[in-house]
Design a protein that fits this description.
The chain is elongated. The protein has helices at about 10-30, 35-60, 70-95, 100-125, 130-135, 140-155, 165-180, 185-195, 195-240, 240-250, 255-265, 270-275, 280-295, 300-305. Helix 1 runs parallel beside helix 9 (about 195-240), helix 4 (about 100-125) runs antiparallel to helix 6 and helix 11 packs across helix 13 (about 280-295). It has two domains: about 10-225, Rhopdopsin 7-helix transmembrane proteins (Up-down Bundle), CATH 1.20.1070; about 240-305, Arc Repressor Mutant, subunit A (Orthogonal Bundle), CATH 1.10.10.10. The protein is mainly alpha-helical.
Length: about 300
């Protein structure tokens, strides 16, 4: 199904709208915390994805005043552009220094120059798009496979102590974004086999939609962790005696009071289990009972409520 009397599939339109909404929200989050530079680089990645989806969805279409040849160049160029940006994103957002050579030399030589030769020179000269899509994809396709291997190796060898910025996001985030990048290697195959538009869009965009959702989830967890730290400072200020008194008022057992105090110090359940020499499931069971007795739903609310003045 196509929309607006164009060549754009409805699925392409939906994905583009979703990514535009995600881009807008990411921009707001970045403006509120400009020190989070990786978010800025991710915003640029979303912009390139949106441009790719729009150009891939709309072009070529004879209803536009733009020449068909120019439309094809723009459409394929957007794909090359975003593929060229991937190593730059990993280099800038995650501090993977091993990718420096590829960002400044490898990408221009093996992606941008082949695109220029195939689509900006050979295609206008011969007027045959199949030559550009067949022969122009060979070098970029091989290099993309090599680049994927190098990026994976760089992630594995990354030492968290080398870069605080990369460490704040962690390897799990790097692997998630990397898994979203992998399907782009199939673009050359899609072009060669003339795979339908909606399949291309789903394969190349679904991973980034998931990654963006995970970014939102991580942001929420960061905010909750920050609130928990602020409440921990508050508890330290009013004194543990008031905290323990309130625990007694709510009928918490000695063990539950002990766990509540450790939670107020910002400890995770696993560390609490190790410190008290009990299982993680036992800690979670105690926390569940604590929440029920105090009448709260999360750790932040618990610490705040138990840290108030005498109830």
């Amino acid at each position: 199904m196509y929309i607006f009397n164009s060549e754009m599939h409805i699925l392409t339109f939906v994905v583009s709208v979703l990514e535009f909404g995600m881009f807008f929200s990411q921009v707001i989050l970045y403006l509120s915390r400009p020190q989070e530079k990786p978010r800025l680089w991710y915003c640029l990645l979303l912009v390139l994805l949106i441009l790719y989806n729009i150009s891939c969805g709309l072009f070529p279409d004879s209803n536009f005043a733009i020449p068909i040849m120019a439309q094809n160049i723009i459409s394929y160029g957007s794909g090359f552009l975003i593929a060229s940006y991937f190593p730059c994103y990993f280099y800038m957002a995650f501090g993977l220094r091993a990718l420096r050579w590829h960002v400044f030399y490898g990408v221009p030589m093996f992606l941008l120059i082949p695109f220029g030769v195939s689509f900006l020179f050979a295609y206008p000269l011969t007027g045959k798009l199949e030559y550009a899509t067949s022969y122009g994809m060979i070098i970029p396709g091989v290099y993309a496979l090599i680049l994927l291997f190098i990026m994976l190796k760089a992630i594995r060898s990354q030492n968290p102590s080398e870069n605080d910025l990369a460490f704040s996001y962690g390897k799990p985030e790097m692997y998630k974004v990397y898994s979203a990048v992998v399907p782009w290697v199939l673009m050359g195959v899609f072009v060669y086999l003339h795979i339908s538009q909606w399949i291309q869009i789903m394969v190349t965009n679904s991973g980034f939609l998931v990654v963006t959702i995970l970014c939102f989830r991580k942001t929420i967890r960061w905010e909750r962790a920050r609130d928990l730290q602020l409440n921990a400072v508050y508890v330290a200020g009013v004194g543990a005696s008031i905290f323990e008194h309130n625990c007694a008022v709510y009928g918490l057992t000695a063990r539950e009071t002990e766990i509540s105090l450790l939670i107020s110090q910002g400890m995770q359940y696993k560390f609490i289990a190790d410190k008290l020499f009990i299982s993680l499931d036992t800690v979670k069971s105690h926390v569940k009972n604590i929440f029920k007795k105090v009448g709260v739903n999360d750790k932040t609310e618990l610490v705040y409520k138990l840290g108030q003045g005498v109830i």
